[in-house]
Write a structure and sequence with these properties.
mainly alpha; 24% helix; elongated
Length: 134
């Protein structure tokens, strides 16, 4: 009969064996590992928590306050997911201005035009469906 050797830990540590009843536990190792702290940000770099939620960071600045931390609007109550993406809508967290990322103009006119077109299309679809039923 051959005996099977105990499994070896890939890191070279001894396998865990619970203490036997009545034996004192082994003292903790006296070796301490040096803790690696993250490096402070370099000049010109933006910490991760302050980075804008955009593909092209710091390309567009707010036209009102000049803040480089503008966020891409992904959903709006007036246009769902489609409206803000069609208008390339951005929002400044500092002054709360919503503007187009392409033209840097206020987005009010674009939002109004989008809603008028959506309303006209809804009426056309409604009347077409109503006309086909009667």
């Amino acid at each position: 009969m051959s005996t099977v050797p105990p499994p070896q830990d890939p890191y070279g540590q001894q396998p865990y064996a619970p203490p036997v009843q009545g034996e004192p536990m082994a003292p903790p190792p006296q070796q301490f590992q040096q803790v690696q702290y993250p490096q402070p940000p370099q000049p010109g770099m933006v910490p991760y928590a302050q980075k804008p939620k955009r593909k092209y960071a710091n390309v567009v600045q707010c036209p009102r306050c000049g803040s480089p931390f503008v966020d891409e609007v992904r959903y709006a109550w007036w246009g769902g997911v489609l409206g803000p993406s069609m208008l390339s809508l951005m929002k400044c967290p500092n002054c709360k201005l919503q503007f187009s990322g392409k033209t840097l103009q206020d987005a009010k006119n674009g939002i109004i035009i989008y809603n008028v077109i959506a309303l006209v299309l809804a009426f056309v679809v409604f009347f077409v469906i109503f006309a086909l039923r009667h």
